[in-house]
Design goal:
The protein contains 38 helices and 29 strands.
Length: about 1000
C-alpha cells in the first residue's frame, strides 16, 4: 500500500524512513513489525518471529524440546541463545546455531545452497524470516532513545540504520555524529560489539557509511558508496534516491538488504579478525562484495577460461577481497549445477610469500584443510595440485621448476588462478610454466608439427583456467592480458575502485597534498686535471655516484630531514608518526643511516631513532654490514620493531618500497629518481589512513612535482589504453630478425626437430647448442658493433612480445614457436657487450669543493577529477618509438642543420644518432640517467655522445665536419637525444 503525505510533512525525515521500509516489505519480502508489540529489550530480539521460525522449519526438534522442557521450552532457548551471543559474534551464532540437552540442535539461519541439487535446502533458504522495525526503543536505561530502522533475520537483529534527511539540512555526517554521541553501547545488547547488530549504517538520500563497532567518540565509519563518475558518492537512480541500492534491486545488481545479498554477507563475508590482541569485525565495503559477487555471476554464466582484471586502489582491502573470492569460487556451480572450479590458486610474484595474504585467507577458512599454504618447496606445490587441494597459496616462481614440469593429466580439471598485484611478471617464463602445469595432458603424437602446436597452444588462452588479476596499477601488458574488451574496442578493468574514489572517500590519504622538492648543486675539483680515470661514461657515472655519497652531501640532506621531522612530523598521530627515507642504492641507505644516527647523537636529540633495510651483505670502508648487524636484530623482526615507539625512521633501498603496510607512516624523504609505476607504488606507502585527518609530507631531493604528477595520472581513475597493441607486430619482428645475416632458416628447423621431439639427453643438448653456435659465430664475425647491439635488442623484444601475444591469442603458427625456442637459446649464447674495468673514485682523485641544497617547489601535487593520462600500447622494439613532441624536435634539428650548412640531410640521416644513444646507454649510463637530476648527469652523457658521434660518422665527412665544428648544432642534437635517453631510462 502506498503511503500518502501532506505538503506539510512530505519533506521530513520520516517520509524517507517510511519509503525504505515500504520498499523492503513490497520488493524484498520483509515483514514490518511493531516495536512496542514485538521487540524484547532485554534480549534484543523479536522473540515471536524467532520461535515462529524454529517451529516451522524444524518441527521435530521443537517437539523434542517441548517434550523435554515442557513450559520452559521457550525460556530455555532464549537462555542458550543469550549465552551463545555473549560467547560468539552474532554472524557466527547465525551460522552455527545452538544446541541443547538432549542433543537438540537448532539452525538459526539457512543459507543459500551452492547448487539446486537438493530442493529441501532451497526451501529452507526461502523459509528464513526477514523483518524490519521502525523507531526501535532499544534501551532499558533510557526508554526514550530509539533507532530509526532495525532489520532482523529470524528475529535476531543484524543491522541498524540512522536515517537523515537532506531536505531538512541533515546528512550522513549527522547520522554518524548521532551514533557517536547518543548511541553508547554500554549495557545495550543491541549495540554491544559482537553481541548485538552486526553492522550500523548512517544513511541520507545520497550517501551511506557504516561501522561494525560503536565506541562513542572513537567510532570510525567507512564509506559504503558505489562511486560516482570515477570519484566518491553514488550515481543518480531514475525516480529514486541515490542510495536505493540498499533497499531496491537495480539493473546493476540485487539490493544490499535483499534476501540473497544480506544472507550471503552473513554467511560468506563477515569475518572477525584478531591481531596483536585486537579484534576487528570485517564487514565488506561496497566495492569489495560488489566485485566478488559480479565475478561469481560472470563466471557462473561464462564458465572457466575467462580473464578478469580488478583494479582496486592500494589500501582498499585487496587481501580480504582476494580471500572472499577464493573461498567462494571453489563452491561455485555452473547453470547445470555442476562444480565449476576444482582448485583456486592464489599467486604472488613476491619471493617471500605475503604473510598478510596467507593469514587473511587462512583465517577465512570455515572448514579444516581447505587452504594449503606452500611455504616449502615446489615439490609441496606439485603434491597439492595432484591431490586436488581446494585453495593453494604460492609464489609464481615455484611453477618454474622441474618438479612441476612432470605434472600431467590436469587438463580435465578447472582452475581459478587469482593473481595478487598482476604486473609484467605474469607474462614471463614462470607464468608460462604455471599454464603448462595446469593444462598439460598426456600426448601420443610423434609428429613434430603437432608437438610444436601443442607447446604453442599451452601459451594461449586456456579453457580450463580463469585468471583473476588484482592490482591498483595495471600496466599496458596487464590491461591487454587480463582486461575485458569494451564497446570502444579497448581493454578495460572488469571492476574498478579508483585511487580518486578512495581519496575522496577518505579511505586512503592523498600522498601528494604536501609536496616539497629540493635541488642539489655540486662543484667538483680534480686533483689531476687530465687524469685518464675520468674519461669515459663509466667514470662519469662513478663521479656522479661519488658526489651523491659524499658525507657533505648526505650531511646536509640529513640535517634537512631530521629538522623537518622534528618540526612537522614528530608531533603527529599523538607522537607516534613515522617516516621513511628512500635511497638509490644499498650503500646510500647504509651511509644515510650512519650519518642520521651520528647527527641525532651529536645534537643530543631523544625520542628519535632510525632503522635501515637492505638485502644481502655490504662491504663499506673494509667492514661487512648486513641489515641485522646494523639494526641489532634479525631481519624478520624489523616490521614488528618499527611499529613500536622505539623507532621513528626507516631508511630503505628497494626493500619495503612496495607491499609494506605501516599506517603510522606520515613522511617520506625521497633521494632517488622515481618514474611511472615505481613512483606510485613507493609513495603509496604513505596512503594508509590512521585515525582521522592523518597528514602526509613528502620531501623530494630528486624528482619534480610535475614528474610525480605524470607518474600518478594513468592510475588516478580507471587506467586506459590509448589504443590496443597491434599483435601483427610479431610478424614485423620476425621479419627483422630473420633478415639478419646471422640466422638461417634451415638451422632453426633442425633445432626445432630435435628440441620438440620429447625427452632430451645430454647428447641432444650438445647438438642443440652446436646448431645455435653457428649463428653465434656469424654474429662474432660482424665488425659493426651498433648492428650487433640492435640485433641483441631485437631478439629480446621478440622473446618478450611473443610471450605476450601467445598468451592473448591462439596463434596456430608453428614457425613462430620454432623461432621462439631457437631465439631463446641464441639470446643466451650471444656474447655480452664488453664491459670496461670498474673505476673507483677516491678522495685522492676528486674533491667536492662546494655543495648547496636549495629548496624548490612547495605545495600540493594532487590530481583533480579528469586529470588522467592513457597508457601507450606496446610499440617499441629494439629502439624507443618517437613521441609527437620528439618528432617535432627532430624535424627542427633537421631543418636547422640543412639551413645553416646548405645540406640536404633527411630524417633517416638523423636517426643514425639513435645508434649512438643505444651504444652509450648501457646499464651504468641508464642507471646514472635514471637516478640523478638532469643537470648532474648531462655532462657525462654529452661527452659520451660526442665520442659516439665522431665514431659513427667517421666515414661521413660532411656530417662529421658539422658535428666537430658547429658547437650550437652539436648541442641542439645532444639535448634532443639526451631527453630521449631520459625517457628510455625511466621506462626501462
Amino acid at each position: 500500500m502506498t503511503n500518502t503525505h501532506t505538503t506539510v510533512d512530505i519533506h521530513q525525515e520520516k517520509v524517507f524512513e517510511a519509503h525504505i521500509v515500504a520498499c523492503l516489505t513490497a520488493d524484498q519480502g520483509y515483514i514490518e513489525r511493531d516495536c512496542a508489540a514485538h521487540y524484547n529489550v532485554a534480549h534484543a530480539l523479536d522473540t515471536e518471529l524467532l520461535f515462529r521460525f524454529l517451529k516451522t522449519t524444524q518441527p521435530e526438534a521443537w517437539q523434542t524440546l517441548e517434550d523435554h522442557y515442557r513450559a520452559q521450552a521457550e525460556a530455555e532457548v532464549l537462555k542458550r541463545l543469550d549465552k551463545a551471543l555473549k560467547d560468539k559474534p552474532t554472524h557466527v551464532v547465525l551460522r552455527d546455531g545452538i544446541k541443547l540437552v538432549p542433543n537438540i540442535r537448532f539452525a538459526l539461519c539457512f543459507f543459500k545452497p551452492a547448487s539446486n541439487l537438493n530442493p529441501d535446502l532451497t526451501r529452507l533458504f526461502d523459509a528464513n524470516i526477514l523483518s524490519v522495525m521502525r523507531q526501535v526503543h532499544y534501551s532499558a536505561k533510557d526508554p526514550r532513545k530509539s533507532i530509526d530502522i532495525v532489520t532482523f533475520v529470524n528475529g535476531i537483529p543484524v543491522a541498524t540504520q540512522e536515517v537523515k534527511n537532506l531536505l531538512t539540512g541533515q546528512n550522513v555526517r549527522h547520522a554518524e555524529k548521532q551514533y557517536r554521541q547518543d548511541r553508547s553501547p554500554a549495557g545495550e545488547p543491541l549495540l554491544t560489539f559482537k553481541r548485538g547488530a552486526i553492522v550500523h549504517f548512517a544513511v541520507d538520500q545520497d550517501n551511506v557509511s557504516m561501522t561494525t563497532r560503536l565506541m562513542n567518540g572513537k567510532t570510525r565509519f567507512l564509506p559504503f558508496n558505489r562511486g560516482r563518475d570515477g570519484g566518491a558518492g553514488n550515481p543518480d537512480v531514475p525516480d529514486e534516491n541515490r542510495v536505493a541500492y540498499l533497499y531496491k534491486d537495480l539493473p546493476e545488481g540485487r539490493a544490499v538488504f535483499s534476501r540473497e545479498v544480506l544472507l550471503d554477507l552473513i554467511g560468506r563475508f563477515i569475518h572477525l579478525e584478531r591481531s596483536n590482541g585486537k579484534e576487528v569485525l570485517i564487514f565488506p565495503r561496497f566495492q569489495q562484495f560488489d566485485a566478488v559477487r559480479k565475478l561469481l555471476v560472470d563466471a557462473r554464466g561464462q564458465g572457466a577460461g575467462q580473464n578478469y582484471l580488478i583494479q582496486h586502489s592500494a589500501g582498499s582491502g585487496k587481501s580480504n577481497t582476494i580471500a572472499w573470492t577464493a573461498h567462494q569460487i571453489i563452491n561455485l556451480h555452473d547453470e547445470d549445477d555442476k562444480p565449476l572450479f576444482d582448485t583456486a590458486i592464489i599467486v604472488t610474484d613476491r619471493l617471500v610469500l605475503d604473510r598478510q595474504l596467507q593469514n587473511t585467507i587462512g583465517g577465512f577458512a570455515q572448514t579444516e584443510g581447505v587452504v594449503k599454504k606452500i611455504d616449502g618447496t615446489s615439490r609441496d606445490l606439485k603434491d597439492a595440485i595432484l591431490r586436488g587441494a581446494r585453495i593453494i597459496i604460492t609464489t609464481i616462481q615455484k611453477f618454474g621448476t622441474e618438479h612441476l614440469a612432470t605434472i600431467s593429466g590436469q587438463a580435465g580439471r578447472n582452475f581459478a588462478v587469482i593473481i595478487d598485484e598482476a604486473h609484467s611478471s605474469q607474462s614471463g617464463k614462470a607464468a608460462q610454466a604455471m599454464s603448462d602445469a595446469l593444462t598439460r595432458d598426456a600426448t601420443s603424437s610423434d609428429d613434430i608439427e603437432d608437438l610444436v602446436l601443442a607447446f604453442q597452444k599451452a601459451r594461449g588462452p586456456q579453457k580450463n583456467i580463469s585468471f583473476l588479476a588484482f592490482t591498483a596499477t595495471p600496466r599496458n601488458v596487464t590491461l591487454e592480458r587480463f582486461g575485458r574488451i569494451g564497446a570502444d574496442g579497448k581493454p578495460h578493468p572488469f571492476h574498478l575502485y579508483s585511487m580518486r574514489q578512495a581519496i575522496e572517500e577518505e579511505f586512503i590519504v592523498d600522498v601528494l597534498k604536501n609536496y616539497m622538492t629540493y635541488k642539489a648543486y655540486y662543484q667538483l675539483e680534480k686533483t689531476i686535471e687530465d687524469d685518464p680515470a675520468f674519461k669515459g661514461r663509466k667514470a662519469q657515472s662513478r663521479v656522479a655516484r661519488y658526489a651523491s655519497l659524499h658525507p657533505t652531501a648526505i650531511d646536509q640532506k640529513v640535517e634537512v630531514i631530521v629538522e623537518h621531522f622534528r618540526r612537522h612530523v614528530a608531533k603527529e598521530l599523538n607522537g607516534q608518526a613515522k617516516a621513511m627515507i628512500v635511497t638509490q642504492s644499498r650503500e646510500h641507505a647504509l651511509r644515510y643511516w650512519q650519518q642520521l644516527t651520528r647527527y641525532i647523537e651529536d645534537k643530543g636529540y631523544t625520542g628519535l631513532r632510525a632503522l635501515v633495510a637492505f638485502s644481502g651483505d655490504l662491504t663499506i670502508d673494509g667492514h661487512v654490514w648486513t641489515e641485522a648487524t646494523a639494526n641489532g636484530f634479525a631481519e624478520t623482526e624489523l616490521t614488528k620493531r618499527f611499529d613500536t615507539d622505539d623507532y621513528q625512521v626507516l631508511v630503505v633501498a628497494e626493500k619495503y618500497q612496495t607491499g609494506f603496510d605501516q599506517p603510522k607512516l606520515v613522511a617520506m624523504y625521497v633521494d632517488k629518481k622515481l618514474a611511472g609505476l615505481q613512483a606510485v607504488q613507493t609513495l603509496a606507502r604513505l596512503n594508509r589512513s590512521y585515525g582521522k585527518d592523518k597528514p602526509t609530507y613528502v620531501l623530494d631531493f630528486q624528482n619534480t612535482m610535475e614528474e610525480i604528477r605524470e607518474a600518478f595520472a594513468p592510475f588516478f581513475e580507471a587506467t586506459a589504453l590509448e589504443e590496443r597493441t597491434d599483435l601483427n607486430q610479431i610478424y614485423d619482428l620476425e621479419q627483422r630478425i630473420t633478415k639478419a645475416t646471422y640466422i638461417h632458416k634451415d638451422e632453426v628447423e633442425r633445432f626445432a626437430d630435435q628440441f620438440f621431439k620429447g625427452d632430451l639427453t645430454t647428447q641432444d643438448r650438445l647438438a642443440l647448442e652446436g646448431t645455435v653456435r653457428l649463428a653465434v659465430e656469424r654474429f662474432n664475425l660482424d665488425e659493426d658493433e651498433a648492428q650487433q647491439e640492435e640485433f641483441r635488442q631485437l631478439l629480446k623484444s621478440f622473446l618478450r612480445f611473443y610471450a605476450f601475444v601467445a598468451q592473448v591469442v591462439s596463434l596456430n603458427d608453428v614457425w613462430l614457436e620454432k623461432l621462439y625456442a631457437y631465439s631463446a637459446w641464441l639470446s643466451r649464447l650471444l656474447p655480452s657487450r664488453d664491459v670496461p674495468a670498474d673505476i673507483t673514485i677516491t678522495d685522492d682523485m676528486l674533491t667536492l669543493s662546494a655543495f648547496k641544497l636549495q629548496k624548490g617547489e612547495e605545495g600540493s601535487a594532487s590530481l583533480a577529477a579528469g586529470e588522467t593520462a592513457t597508457l601507450d600500447p606496446i610499440t617499441e622494439f629494439g629502439a624507443n618509438a618517437y613521441t609527437e613532441e620528439e618528432e617535432r624536435s627532430l624535424s627542427e634539428i633537421n631543418d636547422s642543420f640543412n639551413e645553416r650548412h646548405g645540406t640536404s640531410f633527411s630524417r633517416d640521416d638523423f636517426l643514425r644518432f639513435e645508434r649512438v644513444t643505444r651504444e652509450i646507454m648501457d646499464e651504468d649510463m641508464t642507471e646514472m640517467v635514471r637516478n640523478n637530476p638532469a643537470d648532474v648527469v648531462y655532462n657525462a652523457f654529452s661527452q659520451a655522445f660526442f665520442r659516439g658521434m665522431v665514431k659513427m660518422f667517421q666515414n661521413d665527412n660532411e656530417m662529421r665536419n658539422i658535428v666537430m665544428t658547429d658547437k650550437d648544432a652539436r648541442e641542439q642534437a645532444t639535448r634532443h637525444f639526451f631527453k630521449r635517453a631520459q625517457r628510455h631510462a625511466r621506462e626501462s
